[in-house]
Q: What sequence folds into this?
């Protein structure tokens, strides 16, 4: 296999010599769960990436980019097989993705050996950046940034004295609740915590605790299905403190699960910048283009997909058509992305680790902007 | 810790009684079937799920999107109750016909019936996720299905620091009424005598002219109807359902049935309330993540002292 990889590398370089002169096409892969059960959060970044690449090709550049899609179903073993095929047969020079953390972890070392740079739009596990990989990047802040980002925002916006931090006892949820609670405590807030089993229907004990503690702010680490029910039961139980949660609950089903009235005013943080009807500037343009191309509104991580693709486009535009050269370019790339300013740290993490704040208004999830600038209304 | 427990004692008691009432209603189905057939009907949790679905479809089908009041509310609750009881009771009878009766007729072991129960449970879950919900216009049958609030919450009165809400009162009162009705039916009517006779000694009952098939069918119908009422109350209280909604509640209700003494109707009632209270008290004492650990520890402790449950297995021994 090593031989094949070396050959692939040589072929790529050969392509550079000829491709640079008379134009041609390079292939950039997109990998993620495109048809499986979680495809709902992978299609938006895929559409975003395609939008950027189509727009670039429409300008009739010297070197065109072909986006090759790899449907990993979010499964590690499929991702591994597909990434080998992508490197050896398709000879991609860069990869947008993989979308999820698990598959990213599985294929990281293969991409490293194949010298294929990757930029993920949605993998948020903090440990991915700690492998020493030189070809790996992402354009989304990790979970270690999210909790403190939301906590700082809450501390600033509400100046709470007491915060009640709850999680639904799943891996992601516990981690997020923990970092958020720690950051809140650091900001001088008294914190009480509780956890409930995710399959439970009655969160009465948690509600009673929150009520007795008389918190100013309630933070929930977990997914929208549980978040919606918790929010409903809290409001029914007479707890009207501000309810805040993270990206796992950034879904309209949070509102339908809680009921419109209970969900009103709930705050959701996310390392993603989703354009909404009220967005301005570049985001507004992006929303219009996205809608025209896909007939849907931009959703979670669609701008991140666009920015990941843009990073590759800029590399190719600058005349880089091999994995190695593109990777060198990515180390220095710096541009104003749609989601955030794009610049990578040495370990592949984005320089900007901004958290964006959303709030439920009239039953819709509306964007309030970056956590550092957002202001709560009402 | 302890101050939490004392401070939240009354609110968590109210909460425990409300969820305990739902456990108890579902537990009745486990206990009756066990009393008559010596079978743990593991598909009973899905009978409850069907009960929630029937109420869900009534509320959604009528296009209710705001709380209703007065006679309209009474009518709606009754309609939901009838729909849920019919759906769940009917499904339970059908379940017995398809999954248990053929095995019983062929004299298969109880273990075979148990496997059949687990199979029926999985089948019903997937059937709702893959067929019923998509056919009803919900293409993704695996996500939570909320209903809009139709029963407005009101604080009725307070006892100490506990606020008593009208929905809690509805759940507790409705389940008590249903349980008393069932208890009377089993202890006073002819068909009830048949059920008790079958539970006591099936062969002697046959010799006395009891039609076992009818008795078994009625038992499933009654147990299923109680699960149906529980489903309707669940929709009123929690306003959400999905194809797996019965899973955890089924386990809890089964636990309640064992706790009170499986086969014993009043035991199911007591077991349901005890479980609900212990869970909620335990959660305030140690944190909600310990809820199930505490509940099952209590179960084990009680069974160590009283192996047949708090009230013992007495459906068959009740006065003739």
A:
């Amino acid at each position: 296999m090593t031989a094949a990889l070396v050959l692939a590398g040589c072929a790529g370089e050969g392509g550079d010599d000829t491709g640079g002169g008379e134009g041609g096409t390079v292939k950039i892969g997109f990998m993620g769960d495109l048809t499986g059960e979680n495809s709902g959060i992978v299609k938006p970044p895929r559409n975003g990436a395609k939008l950027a690449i189509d727009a670039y090709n429409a300008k009739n550049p010297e070197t065109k980019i072909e986006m090759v899609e790899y449907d990993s179903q979010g499964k590690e073993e499929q991702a591994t097989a597909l990434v080998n095929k992508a490197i050896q047969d398709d000879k991609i020079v860069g990869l947008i993705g993989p979308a999820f953390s698990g598959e990213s972890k599985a294929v990281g070392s293969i991409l490293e050996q194949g010298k294929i740079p990757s930029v993920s739009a949605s993998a948020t596990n903090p440990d991915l950046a700690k492998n020493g990989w030189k070809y790996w990047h992402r354009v989304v802040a990790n979970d270690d940034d999210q909790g403190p980002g939301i906590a700082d925002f809450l501390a600033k916006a509400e100046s709470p004295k007491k915060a009640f931090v709850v999680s639904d006892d799943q891996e992601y949820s516990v981690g997020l609740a923990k970092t958020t609670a720690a950051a809140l405590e650091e900001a001088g807030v008294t914190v009480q915590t509780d956890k409930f089993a995710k399959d439970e229907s009655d969160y009465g004990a948690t509600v009673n605790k929150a009520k007795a503690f008389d918190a100013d702010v309630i933070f929930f680490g977990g997914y929208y299905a549980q978040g919606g029910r918790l929010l409903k039961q809290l409001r029914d139980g007479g707890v009207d403190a501000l309810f805040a949660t993270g990206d796992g609950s950034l879904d309209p089903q949070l509102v339908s699960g809680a009921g419109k009235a209970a969900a009103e005013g709930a705050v959701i943080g996310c390392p993603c910048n989703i354009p909404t009807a009220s967005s301005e500037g570049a985001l507004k343009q992006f929303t219009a283009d996205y809608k025209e191309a896909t007939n849907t509104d931009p959703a979670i991580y669609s701008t991140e997909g666009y920015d990941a693709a843009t990073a590759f486009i800029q590399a190719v535009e600058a005349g880089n058509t091999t994995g190695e050269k593109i990777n060198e370019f990515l180390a220095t790339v710096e541009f104003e992305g749609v989601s955030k300013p794009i610049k990578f740290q040495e370990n592949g993490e984005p320089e900007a680790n901004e958290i964006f704040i959303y709030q439920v208004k009239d039953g819709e999830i509306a964007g309030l902007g970056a956590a550092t600038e957002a202001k709560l209304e009402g | 810790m302890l101050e939490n427990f004392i401070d939240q004692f009354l609110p968590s008691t109210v909460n425990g009684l409300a969820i305990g009432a739902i456990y108890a209603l579902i537990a009745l189905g486990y206990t009756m079937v066990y009393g008559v057939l010596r079978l743990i009907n593991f598909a009973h949790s899905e009978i409850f799920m069907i009960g929630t679905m029937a109420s869900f479809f009534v509320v959604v089908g009528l296009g209710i999107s705001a709380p209703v009041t007065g006679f309209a509310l009474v009518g709606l609750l009754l309609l939901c109750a009838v729909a849920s009881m019919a759906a769940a009771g009917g499904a339970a009878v059908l379940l017995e016909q398809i999954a248990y009766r053929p095995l019983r007729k062929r004299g298969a072991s109880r273990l075979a019936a148990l496997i059949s129960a687990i199979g029926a449970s999985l089948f019903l879950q997937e059937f709702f996720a893959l067929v019923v919900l998509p056919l009803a216009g919900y293409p993704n049958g695996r996500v939570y299905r909320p209903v809009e609030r139709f029963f407005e919450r009101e604080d009725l009165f307070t006892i100490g620091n506990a606020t008593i809400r009208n929905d809690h009162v509805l759940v507790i009162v409705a389940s008590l009424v249903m349980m008393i009705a069932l208890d009377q039916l089993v202890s006073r009517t002819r068909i009830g005598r048949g059920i008790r006779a079958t539970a006591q000694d099936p062969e002697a009952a046959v010799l006395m002219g009891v039609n076992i098939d009818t008795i078994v069918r009625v038992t499933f119908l009654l147990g299923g109807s109680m699960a149906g009422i529980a489903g309707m109350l669940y929709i009123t209280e929690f306003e959400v359902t999905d194809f797996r909604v019965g899973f955890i509640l089924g386990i809890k209700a089964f636990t309640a049935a064992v706790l009170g003494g499986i086969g014993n109707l009043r035991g199911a009632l007591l077991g349901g309330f005890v479980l609900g209270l212990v869970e909620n008290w335990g959660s305030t004492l140690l944190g909600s993540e310990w809820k199930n650990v505490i509940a099952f520890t209590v179960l084990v402790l009680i069974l160590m002292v009283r192996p047949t449950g708090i009230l013992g297995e007495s459906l068959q021994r009740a006065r003739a």
